[in-house]
Specification:
Elements (H helix, E strand, L loop, with lengths): L2 E6 L1 H6 L16 E6 L1 E7 L3 E7 L2 E4 L2 E7 L3 H9 L1 E6 L5 H9 L14 E3 L6 E3 L4 E13 L2 E13 L4 E2 L2 E2 L8 E5 L3 E6 L3
Parallel strand pairs: 1-15
Antiparallel strand pairs: 2-14, 3-4, 3-7, 5-6, 6-11, 7-10, 8-9, 10-11, 12-13, 14-15
C-alpha cells in the first residue's frame, strides 16, 4: 500500500467542489476515512519492553478517550494485557516515523533507524514519544471486541502539551497542525492544513 502526501487548504478543498454539495453518488467501498488525526499509541510490550503503533481511529469526550484497533495486532494485545497506553500526536515532520508505526506490527519499532524516541512516564509504565506535540496518558476502563475490531475505552489520566502550543494557559489552536488521514478502500493519504 502506498500513501500519498500533500498539503492542502480547507478553503481550496471545499471550493473545488464548485458549490455542488447536494449531488451525491453511492460509493461502494469497505472503508471511508474523511479526515481523522493520525496518532501514535505508546505501550508496554512483553517482548520488546516498549513499543508503538500508528492509528487514526479515536475520539475524546471530557476525560474519556476511545480507540479502535485491529484485534490481530500486537498493540491491541499488549494494551489489553497491561491496561495503560499513551496517545501521542505527531506533526508532518515525522512522516517516516508514522509509517514505521503503521507497517511493522509486532516489530521492535523503537529500534528502527530514524524511529521515534521516548521517555518513560512517571505516572504509569508507558512510553511518552518525545517528538510528538501532545501526549495523553490513559488507563483502560473497558474493552469491547466486535468482529475483527477492538474498542478500547479509557480515562485520560494526564495531558502533556508542548509548551510552544500553550498561550495564556490554553491550547493555541492556530499552532496545532496534526497529520490527517483520508481515503477509502482503494487509496489512503496523509494531508495537512495549510497556514492560510
Amino acid at each position: 500500500m502506498s500513501i500519498h502526501i500533500e498539503l492542502f487548504s480547507l478553503y481550496t478543498c471545499f471550493n473545488s467542489l464548485g458549490g455542488d454539495y447536494l449531488n451525491k453518488t453511492i460509493l461502494d467501498t469497505e472503508k471511508l476515512y474523511y479526515g481523522f488525526p493520525i496518532f501514535i499509541l505508546g505501550y508496554k510490550d512483553d517482548r520488546w519492553g516498549y513499543n508503538f503503533t500508528t492509528s487514526s481511529s479515536s475520539y475524546t469526550l471530557d476525560n474519556f478517550l476511545n480507540v479502535g484497533l485491529s484485534n490481530q495486532g500486537n498493540a491491541s494485545k499488549q494494551i489489553k494485557k497491561h491496561g495503560y497506553f499513551t496517545l501521542n500526536i505527531p506533526t508532518k515532520d515525522y512522516l517516516e516515523q508514522i509509517k514505521i508505526g503503521g507497517f511493522n506490527s509486532g516489530a521492535d519499532k523503537f529500534n528502527f533507524s530514524n524511529s521515534f524516541q521516548y521517555d518513560l512516564s512517571d505516572k504509569m509504565d508507558v512510553p511518552i514519544i518525545k517528538e510528538c506535540v501532545i501526549t495523553l496518558e490513559c488507563k483502560v476502563s473497558q474493552i469491547i471486541e466486535e468482529d475483527s475490531i477492538v474498542h478500547i475505552f479509557s480515562t485520560i489520566e494526564r495531558r502533556l502539551v508542548n509548551s510552544k502550543l500553550i498561550k495564556d494557559n490554553h491550547l493555541d489552536n492556530n499552532l496545532l497542525n496534526p497529520v490527517l488521514y483520508l481515503g477509502d478502500g482503494n487509496k489512503r493519504s496523509f494531508k495537512f492544513l495549510s497556514s492560510e
